[in-house]
Structures are given as structure tokens and as C-alpha cells.
């Protein structure tokens, strides 16, 4: 299929530098996690240290599994062996937990070569965004499997035990991970219009920040009410996972990996909404946020009724106010984005004589090859 690649769709030096900073933040995040666990351990909080390490290891293990599977899938099904990695080499780097680092290095090297070339093909540009999308989705998995649970733990520690930890950047980083994924995802598919920069991106980022933050705070209040609230959270996760099974997602080539993917979708849905099938999700999104608002409001109300002493704390009223205002603002930004700023129409047109849903190969019509990107989470 022939497409016209717009100039803003090209992999630029600015995007290359953003990838460099992404790698640096990734390494810094790993280092800070281990330093934090050591700090907890030295302070005598073995449980906190253990939970921090568990979140890190579970998140890392899951993304390494998917990273290896995607390397292998690209090598076998899409005839892409440009990374020069044998199967043994692939297994080794992922067992050593450096699969994501390898992806960063490969993307930086390949994009650097493309940027220095004056005649980079459009196909290569799309491929670069495909590599970036893989990396972005893996980082998003890591955010919701590792960073968000850690953030809930840290907020709990601050409110319940008055241990002060700097977390302002954590909320922004988590929200930005979803925005970055959305932008990379839409660039990687030639039949989708890109997410515009500037105001649309800022509005979408605001929507995520102001809905994820009160969600994290409300879940923390539930834990403060009783640690058995984690059972209720597990039930919410189970509902999201069951929904992924009901929707019959077909993201992975392996049934086992598909089941793992659906459990991760359940974790993500615990904190924010994602369209897991790429279909019209207005009803699903509406139902999701109705329940989300109800749960967020129930947390401070139950805390007030069942633990009246919490009313006298410094954080109680500010958190209630923040949850109400933040969630209202987040839903307002959501409505603004999807009503006025969402790129509804495709931006790259097929040539006029092609049949919709068919590819032209050697003058013959063939069913299009479904790529992994077309089965990614739609936001």
C-alpha cells in the first residue's frame, strides 16, 4: 500500500534525544528503586523493602518475557533479523534483565544511522516508530506493574507513617508514559492520524494526570482503612482481566503469553482506562469512569465512617478536596479531548484504485498482514 509520509511523521533528532533521555531515566529509575529498598531495609522496614523489590522484579520479569517474545516474533514471522542476535543471545540478555536496555541501544543506533542518511526510505521511518512503539509499550507495562504499585506503597507510607518521600515526578512520569505510548502507537500505523503536538497532547496528558492521581490516592485510603482492602483491589483486577478474556484479545502469538497479557491489562484497568480492542469504547469508558468515580468517593467516606480519628489528620480534608477536584478536572479534559481534539480521521490515504482491506503484491490483491501494532492496546 502506498502512503504519503508527512514531514512531522519522520524520526527527528529531537525524537532521538528524547530516546536518549528515556534510556537515562530508565537506568535512573532502576537505581532509585534499589536505593529506596536499601533505605527501607536500613530503617528496619523489611516489609516495605521486600514489597519494593517484588514490584521491581515482577515488572522486570514480565517485560523481559514480552521483549523476548517480540524479538523472536519479528525474527520468525516478519523476517526481521537486523539486530544480529541469535536465539541464545536473545535468551541470555533477557535472563540478565537487559532486554529493554538492548532495545534502547538498538533503536538509538538504527535511528542515528537513518538520521545521518539523506535518503532514508519511508518504510524505514515507519519501522523506527515501530521499534519505538514496542519500547514504549514495554515501558508502559513496567509503569503499571512496578511504578504505580510502588507509588501506592509510598503514598501509604507518607500518610500512615509520616515518612516523606519525593513523589511529584512519579505521578507525571506515569501519566507521560501513557501519552508517549499513544503518540508512538499512532505513528507506527500508517492508517491512523497522528496525535497532534501542543494543546491536544497537553490536554490528553492532563486527563491522565488528573484521573490516575486521585485513583492512586483513593486506593491508598482503602489500604489505610484496612490492609484487607487489597482483596477488594484483587477483585477489581479480576474484573478487568475477565473483561479482557470476554473481549477475546488476540495480541500474542502464544496462548500462554496471551493469558499473561490479559492479566496485565487487568492491572492497567485498575488504574486507568484503555481500549483493549481498538473498537468504539464510549459505553465501556462511561461505565468504567462511573464505577471509578464511585470507588474514589467511597474511599474517604468509608475512612471517615470507620476510622473517625482520621478526620483530625492534616491530610484528610486536602485529600478529599483533591480527589473531588482532580477527578472532575480529569473527566473534563477527557471530554474536551475526545469532543474537539481527537484525531478521528485517517491522515494517510490509500491510492484510489486499491480495494479497502487488501494489499497489492505483484499486481494481485491479498489480505493484509496483521502486525503486532494493530493489536496493541488502543487508547
Strand content: under 5%
Largest sheet: 2 strands, antiparallel
Distance between the termini: 25 Å
- Percent range of helical residues: 55-70%
**In one word, what is the shape?**
globular
Order of helices and strands: HHHHHHHHHHHEE
The tally of domains stands at 2
Put simply, the count of helices is 11
- Structure classification: mainly alpha
What is the strand tally? 2
**How do the strands of the widest beta sheet line up side by side?**
1-2
The Cα radius of gyration reads 22 Å
User: Averaging pLDDT over every residue, what do you get?
Assistant: 80
Low-confidence runs of at least 5 consecutive residues: 1-7, 347-369
Organism: Sinocyclocheilus anshuiensis
Keywords: Cell membrane, Membrane, Transmembrane, Transmembrane helix
Family: Belongs to the XK family.
Membrane topology: Multi-pass membrane protein
Amino acid at each position: 500500500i502506498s502512503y504519503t509520509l508527512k514531514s512531522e511523521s519522520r524520526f527527528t533528532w529531537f525524537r532521538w534525544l528524547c530516546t536518549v533521555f528515556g534510556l537515562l531515566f530508565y537506568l535512573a529509575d532502576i537505581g532509585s528503586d534499589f536505593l529506596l529498598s536499601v533505605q527501607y531495609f536500613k530503617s528496619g522496614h523489611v516489609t516495605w523493602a521486600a514489597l519494593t523489590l517484588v514490584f521491581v522484579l515482577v515488572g522486570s520479569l514480565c517485560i523481559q518475557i514480552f521483549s523476548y517474545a517480540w524479538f523472536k516474533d519479528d525474527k520468525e514471522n516478519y523476517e526481521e533479523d537486523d539486530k544480529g542476535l541469535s536465539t541464545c543471545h536473545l535468551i541470555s540478555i533477557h535472563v540478565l534483565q537487559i532486554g529493554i536496555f538492548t532495545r534502547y541501544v538498538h533503536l538509538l543506533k538504527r535511528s542515528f544511522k537513518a538520521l545521518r542518511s539523506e535518503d532514508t526510505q519511508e518504510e524505514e521511518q515507519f519501522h523506527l516508530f515501530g521499534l519505538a512503539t514496542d519500547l514504549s509499550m514495554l515501558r508502559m507495562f513496567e509503569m503499571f506493574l512496578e511504578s504505580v504499585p510502588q507509588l501506592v506503597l509510598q503514598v501509604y507510607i507518607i500518610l500512615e507513617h509520616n515518612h516523606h518521600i519525593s513523589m511529584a515526578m512519579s505521578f507525571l512520569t506515569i501519566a507521560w508514559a501513557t501519552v508517549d505510548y499513544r503518540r508512538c502507537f499512532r505513528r507506527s500505523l500508517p492508517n491512523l492520524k497522528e496525535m497532534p503536538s501542543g494543546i491536544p497532547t497537553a490536554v490528553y496528558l492532563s486527563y491522565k494526570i488528573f484521573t490516575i492521581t486521585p485513583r492512586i490516592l483513593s486506593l491508598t485510603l482503602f489500604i489505610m482503612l484496612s490492609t484487607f482492602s487489597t482483596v477488594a483491589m484483587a477483585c477489581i483486577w479480576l474484573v478487568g482481566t475477565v473483561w479482557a478474556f470476554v473481549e477475546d484479545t488476540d495480541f500474542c502469538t502464544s496462548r500462554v503469553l496471551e493469558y499473561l497479557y490479559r492479566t496485565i491489562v487487568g492491572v492497567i484497568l485498575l488504574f486507568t482506562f484503555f481500549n483493549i480492542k481498538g473498537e468504539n469504547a464510549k459505553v465501556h469508558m462511561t461505565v468504567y469512569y462511573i464505577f471509578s468515580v464511585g470507588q474514589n468517593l467511597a474511599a474517604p467516606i468509608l475512612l471517615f465512617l470507620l476510622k473517625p480519628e482520621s478526620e483530625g489528620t492534616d491530610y484528610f480534608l486536602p485529600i478529599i478536596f483533591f480527589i473531588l477536584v482532580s477527578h472532575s478536572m480529569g473527566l473534563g479534559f477527557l471530554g474536551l479531548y475526545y469532543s474537539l481534539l481527537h484525531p478521528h480521521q485517517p491522515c494517510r490515504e490509500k491510492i484510489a484504485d486499491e480495494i479497502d482491506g487488501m494489499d497489492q503484491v505483484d499486481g494481485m490483491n491479498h489480505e493484509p498482514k496483521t502486525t503486532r501494532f494493530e493489536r496493541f492496546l488502543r487508547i
